[in-house]
Amino acid sequence: MTSSFTKILASATVMLGLTATGAQAVNCLQSDTAGTWQSYTLASNSAGTAWFRCILSINAGGVIAPTTCTVSSGLTVPMTEGSLTLINGARCAFIGKFKLAGVQNGINFATMSQDKQSVEGVGKFPGGGVFGFNLNKY
What we know:
Elements: H1 2-25, E1 35-45, E2 48-58, E3 63-64, E4 67-71, E5 76-88, E6 93-100, E7 103-112, E8 118-125, E9 129-137
Antiparallel strand pairs: 1-2, 1-9, 2-4, 3-5, 4-5, 5-6, 6-7, 7-8, 8-9
């Protein structure tokens, strides 16, 4: 029984090692941000919680074209001056910024998936507000 357990444990260790090695081999480039993305964001501050949804067009340099977003209240608001900047290619890590309805928002941490089809991240906006978001590539 100990022998079987040891074999299973050894196999699991090898599998985890291969998975970890594969994850480290993925590198992201700034140009991986290029394309059309659907964004869902949940934001919160002392005034309450809201979500917003946007369709983003991002160029190879990480610049987000001006667009409009639908907010949970039903309003449509402009998003401008947006960008995503690669800060660590080996970890597919990004930072960024954008203005929503004229208010500057900062993306503090974002990570692109290994298949480069999604991004998850968090950020802040004035007045102690925070948000979490995901982007899904069309």
